[in-house]
Amino acid sequence: MPKAKLDQAFERVLTNGDKAFVPYIMAGDGGLEQLNKQIEFLASCGATAIEVGIPFSDPVADGPTIQAAGIRAMKNGVTLAGVLSTLQQTKNSRDIPIVVMTYINPIYAMGIDIFVEQCSHAGIDGLIIPDLPLEEEGLLTNQLSNHAIALIRLAALTSTPERISEITKRTEGFLYAVTVTGTTGARATFKTDLDQHLKALKEQCAVPVLAGFGVSTAEHVKQLTTHCDGVVVGSRIVDLLHQEEYEQIRALVAAAKLS
Ligand SMILES: O=P(O)(O)OC[C@@H](O)[C@@H](O)c1c[nH]c2ccccc12
């Protein structure tokens, strides 16, 4: 099988000496007709891949910024099916890999087989499902591997060493190293022993390790990427897109480039 688009994108960035930058956007914040334009803009800023969030009424891992964006999107009538069909429109013209982030409930509501089919039609490269524990992921792992869609696992700061070892073995595409305990949202600083934690994950993991949660400044990006392969930035990007601060987004993404 040819190398997956997600793997290729990381390889390109990392062999260049740069770090990966994966912005998160809430699909339909600003209207679903903006989604493909936002993706194109972020790609033009130098993003490695885009994490596209599906609005959901009970977003247990989301902090206030992402929750507010989800509410705006739901007011626009945005659904999982609508997001996937919008992404399908640019499947053949876009180069940048797309990772869909959704809770398990909307997947269930749509039906697992239909969901995976639709993701494949839409050219989705990976999935993040934060409330799907390792023990339950057999629900969709076979279908995903048939369609070469990566299931990106998250390692929490509170995960036990045994669990971490299972997560690092199983993860596909990249490992999402959660940097804080709690929900998403910009933070001023990180735990002092985070560097050690990221280094340990990196040693165990065969795919790139990306740090996410709380990353909101160029300094954070530089600081965290000394110990891992890149960052995921959500709340800060969601805010800046909402405020139409495009130059600030460009500067933040550029912080992951070799300098
Ligand atoms: O917003 P932050 O703190 O930059 O964190 C990234 C995050 O928003 C994004 O990856 C995400 C949004 N919702 C999630 C739920 C679970 C895991 C991750 C996410």
Automatic annotation (TrEMBL):
<keyword id="KW-0456">Lyase</keyword>
<dbReference type="InterPro" id="IPR002028">
    <property type="entry name" value="Trp_synthase_suA"/>
</dbReference>
<dbReference type="GO" id="GO:0005829">
    <property type="term" value="C:cytosol"/>
</dbReference>
<comment type="function">
    <text>The alpha subunit is responsible for the aldol cleavage of indoleglycerol phosphate to indole and glyceraldehyde 3-phosphate.</text>
</comment>
<keyword id="KW-0057">Aromatic amino acid biosynthesis</keyword>
<comment type="similarity">
    <text>Belongs to the TrpA family.</text>
</comment>
<feature type="active site" description="Proton acceptor">
    <location>
        <position position="62"/>
    </location>
</feature>
<dbReference type="GO" id="GO:0004834">
    <property type="term" value="F:tryptophan synthase activity"/>
</dbReference>
<comment type="subunit">
    <text>Tetramer of two alpha and two beta chains.</text>
</comment>
<dbReference type="InterPro" id="IPR018204">
    <property type="entry name" value="Trp_synthase_alpha_AS"/>
</dbReference>
<keyword id="KW-0028">Amino-acid biosynthesis</keyword>
<dbReference type="InterPro" id="IPR013785">
    <property type="entry name" value="Aldolase_TIM"/>
</dbReference>
<comment type="pathway">
    <text>Amino-acid biosynthesis; L-tryptophan biosynthesis; L-tryptophan from chorismate: step 5/5.</text>
</comment>
<protein>
    <recommendedName>
        <fullName>Tryptophan synthase alpha chain</fullName>
        <ecNumber>4.2.1.20</ecNumber>
    </recommendedName>
</protein>
<dbReference type="InterPro" id="IPR011060">
    <property type="entry name" value="RibuloseP-bd_barrel"/>
</dbReference>
<dbReference type="Pfam" id="PF00290">
    <property type="entry name" value="Trp_syntA"/>
</dbReference>
<feature type="active site" description="Proton acceptor">
    <location>
        <position position="51"/>
    </location>
</feature>
<keyword id="KW-0822">Tryptophan biosynthesis</keyword>
